Structures are given as C-alpha cells and as structure tokens.
C-alpha cells in the first residue's frame, strides 16, 4: 500500500468518526433532554415552596 492511500484512508476514517460521533452525541443529548427537561420558572417556584421559601420574582429571576 502506498503512502498516499494510507494517509487518505486515515483522514477518511477520522472524518467518518467525527461525523458519526457528532450524530451519536446529538441523539444522546436529545434523548437526555426529553427525559430530563431543564428547570423552568414554574418548577423553580414549586421547588422553593417545597423548601419553605417564599418564591418572589426577584429570587426566581436570579441566576
């Protein structure tokens, strides 16, 4: 096998791995966020009430 073909196959395998890795990571994250949605304001307000805090807008908007 000549050197040019070997380099081409290595680059091709690298690109294929990057593309496959991107789509697998994307699929994993989409499934993760579907099962565990991010916390929104209503959820935060409910959690604060369960902990005994008064959920004011100032506390709710604080990041």
Question: Which helices and strands appear, and what pairs or packs with what?
Answer:
Blueprint: H1 3-35, H2 41-50, H3 57-61
What labels would you give this structure?
single chain, 63 residues, mainly alpha, 76% helix, 0% strand, rod-shaped
Structure description:
The protein is mainly α and 63 residues long. 76% of the residues lie in helices and 0% in strands. The protein contains 3 helices and no strands. It has helices at residues 3-35, 41-50, 57-61. The longest helix is centred in the first third of the chain and has 33 residues, at 3-35.
Give the tally of β-strands: 0
What percent of residues adopt helix (DSSP H or I)? over 70%
Strand content: under 5%
**How large is the radius of gyration?**
24 Å
What is the N-to-C order of secondary-structure elements (H for helix, E for strand)?
A: HHH
The coarse overall form would be rod-shaped
Class based on secondary structure composition and strand pairing = mainly alpha
Major sheet details: none
Give me the number of helical elements: 3
Low-confidence stretches: none
Mean pLDDT across every amino acid position:
88
Q: What distance separates the N and C termini?
A: 58 Å
């Amino acid at each position: 096998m000549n050197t040019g073909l070997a380099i081409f196959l290595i680059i091709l395998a690298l690109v294929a791995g990057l593309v496959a890795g991107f789509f697998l990571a994307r699929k994993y994250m989409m499934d993760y966020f579907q099962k565990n949605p991010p916390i929104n304001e209503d959820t935060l307000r409910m959690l604060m009430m369960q902990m005994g805090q008064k959920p004011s807008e100032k506390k709710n908007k604080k990041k």
